[in-house]
Amino acid sequence: MKVQGTHYRSIWWDKPAGVVRIIDQRWLPHDFRVVTLKTLDEFAAAIRDMWVRGAPLIGATAAFGIAEQMSRDSSEASFDAAYDVLHATRPTAINLRWALDRCREALMPLAPGDRAERAWSLAQEIADEDVEINAAIGRHGLELIKDIAARKPAGEPVRLLTHCNAGWLATVDWGTATSPMYHAHDAGIPLQVWVDETRPRNQGALTSWELGEHGIPHRYIVDNAGGHLMQHGLVDLVITGTDRTTAQGDVCNKIGTYLKALAARDNGVPFYVALPSPTIDWTVRDGVAEIPIEERDSMEVTHVMGVDGQGNISDVRVTPDGTEGGNPAFDVTPNRLVTGLITERGVSEASADGLARLFPERAGSHFV
To answer: Is 254 flagged in the annotation as binding?
Structure first.
């Protein structure tokens, strides 16, 4: 997607310079910064400390981190150490393990001298595949928006609600939940997007920044406004992303997603989840019981980042001094609350059978 008219991916290999560059998302939406990752420790810090975030982008970043390490030391011991360091950064998003396992499968059978070159090409493949997957998600999600638009009075916008940032900043490009929005806007369908702030890190501000860059009308709302808007008929469709989806269609996403699904069900609003297939964990069935939920630093709850009157970016405490914050980063929405799953292969019901029909080659070896 574009930033002030210039196309960017969230991560890219600057091959002439021999370095990986990322958009450092810690400073957005207040400051747009591009930084270079040069060491395994920097790749790990980028994932752990959310310089990059979003399940697909985390996976791509890990693959580039493996490539960087293989350029320094292509031994099996070096790979195993890099795998462990990267895998320990964030436990919930399944794309991280998926990308690391894919690197292991591709690189370990090779002679050590051949691993670095293959690692770089594989990381690029993973990044390019993510772009194509998300573009396909957008095309399938577009059909849902078209159907709603066709039933509305001429000129009235389709009103969407999304939670957190499942945009191009959370992937390599296009985004997951936002991809149908970009496709619909580009097709000339009027939209109005309600953007949840998504405490504690206010990642909805990233979605707001993205949509603004693309010219999509939107309004930034507090997390607890969504149910009220649904009660008053002001939401036609909810679309969120996911960090891990089980084999039966339970969805693990940013904290607060479950409450949106409950409100949508109570008010008859369709609730869809956009997911690339690498976010499906075919080894897990019961999301509530089996998915590990990352507990992050309480300072993310007790403090907020913003810009002061002098234009300085700073953290400000919003709680009494000494107050402890609880910070579970994700929750699980059971499949019974999910209207459908938007994947690169089409839209399915949120069930083991629905996913198996779209991905028979993956589901057959597990629970279905």
So the answer is: yes
In whole angstroms, what is the distance from residue 250 CA to residue 287 CA?
Answer: 6
Write the CB contacts of 209 (distance below 8 Å, at least 6 apart in sequence). 28, 29
The CA distance from 33 to 215, in Å, is 21
3-state DSSP: the chain helix, strand, coil percent, rounded to 5? Answer: 45, 20, 35
Instruction: Give the E-state strand segments of 45-199 in sequence order.
Output: 158-162, 191-196
Give 71's DSSP letter. H
pLDDT at 365: 56
> Domain of 177: which CATH number?
3.40.50.10470
For the segment 106-149, what is each residue's pLDDT rounded down to a tens digit? 999 999 999 999 999 999 999 999 999 999 999 999 999 999 99
44 vs 51: CA distance, rounded Å: 10
pLDDT in tens, 275-307: 999 999 999 999 999 999 999 999 999 999 899
Domain that holds residue 75: 2-129
Q: Is 54 assigned a ligand-binding role in the annotation? A: yes
Beta strand spans in the chain (E): 2-3, 6-7, 11-14, 19-23, 34-37, 158-162, 191-196, 218-221, 237-240, 244-246, 251-254, 271-274, 280-281, 303-307, 313-317, 330-333, 340-343, 346-348
What radius of gyration do the chain's Cα atoms show? 20
The total number of structural domains in the chain stands at 2
Distance of CA 285 to the CA centre of its chain: 21
Binding residue per annotation — 151?
no
Strands 237-240 and 158-162: parallel
CATH code, domain carrying 22: 1.20.120.420
- Residue 329 is given by DSSP the state -
| Predicted TM-score of the model (pTM) | 0.94
Q: Which residues are catalytic?
A: 243
For 2-51, write each residue's pLDDT tens digit. 898 899 999 999 989 999 999 999 999 999 999 999 999 999 999 999 99
Taking residues 41-67, what's their average pLDDT?
A: 96
